[in-house]
Task: inverse folding
């Protein structure tokens, strides 16, 4: 005999995935390996901004957190690349860090790690796998500022695997995403002379730092001023020579007249 009891229906409320944490930190208080690493990082960032001064569709940063998942953010288990750049975004405002879910799912397009003896193994294995498999970063390069022969780089292939880049005759690597060469340049930055990692344009010209561009402009102006001074001196000398010849001609004429009298 039927009891007429209707099974109780359970109402399931609307389910939403958990939101990523909003208490993100952007500074862990840990400095870069050495002062040379700090200079090297700033040289890459500053020169890219100067070289791309005509553009407002990119962001470049370094030694700052890149947040890419809620779990990673909660665990604080990733510090961020030494240098990275993202293209095709709104670059009109600054960021404290790069938060993927706040940037339309965009990951870094270019990453450069400045290695040291203590980080090289992680940079060449764990981070390389992360950038290949999770970030899908098209161009990844590594360089130890204390070893001029340490430059290596990879480009993400159509099979979504990193393929090692081959250097040109200068030992530079082509960064397809930026449209720039990346290579070693010997010179002085902030009173330290060594082999720095720098950007070069397609013609092989160094992408200058703002201070370098100012010195170059000052040198051009000095040379222009010197050229104008030399032209003025030459003009004055020519005028004096003309005056001397005129005086000599007048004197000769006077002598000729005196002989006739």
Result:
């Amino acid at each position: 005999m039927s009891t007429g009891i209707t099974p109780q229906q359970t109402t399931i409320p609307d389910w939403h995935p958990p939101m990523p944490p909003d208490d993100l930190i952007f500074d862990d208080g840990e400095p870069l390996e050495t002062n040379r690493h700090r200079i090297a990082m700033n040289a890459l960032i500053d020169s890219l901004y100067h070289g791309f001064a005509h553009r407002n569709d990119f962001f470049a940063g370094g030694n700052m957190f890149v947040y890419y998942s809620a779990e990673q953010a909660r665990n604080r288990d990733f510090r961020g690349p030494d240098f990275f750049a993202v293209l095709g975004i709104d670059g009109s405002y600054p960021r404290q860090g790069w938060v993927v879910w706040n940037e339309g799912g965009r990951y870094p397009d270019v990453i450069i790690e400045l290695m040291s003896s203590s980080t090289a193994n992680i940079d060449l294995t764990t981070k390389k796998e992360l950038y290949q498999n999770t970030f899908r970063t098209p161009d990844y390069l590594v360089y130890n500022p204390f070893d001029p022969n340490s430059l290596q780089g990879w480009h993400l292939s159509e099979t979504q695997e990193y393929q090692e880049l081959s250097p040109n005759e200068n030992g530079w690597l082509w960064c397809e995403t930026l449209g720039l060469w990346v290579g070693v340049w010997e010179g002085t930055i902030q009173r330290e002379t060594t082999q720095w990692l720098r950007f070069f344009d397609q013609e092989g010209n160094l992408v200058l730092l703002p201070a370098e561009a100012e010195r170059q402009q000052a040198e051009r102006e000095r040379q222009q001023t010197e050229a104008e001074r030399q032209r003025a001196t030459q003009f004055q000398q020519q005028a004096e020579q003309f005056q001397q010849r005129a005086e000599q001609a007048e004197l000769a004429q006077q002598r000729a007249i005196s002989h006739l009298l």
Q: What stands out?
A: Helices lie at 35-51, 70-75, 120-124, 126-135, 210-260. Residues 210-260 form the longest helix (51 residues). The two ends are 164 Å apart (CA to CA). The longest strand covers residues 147-156.
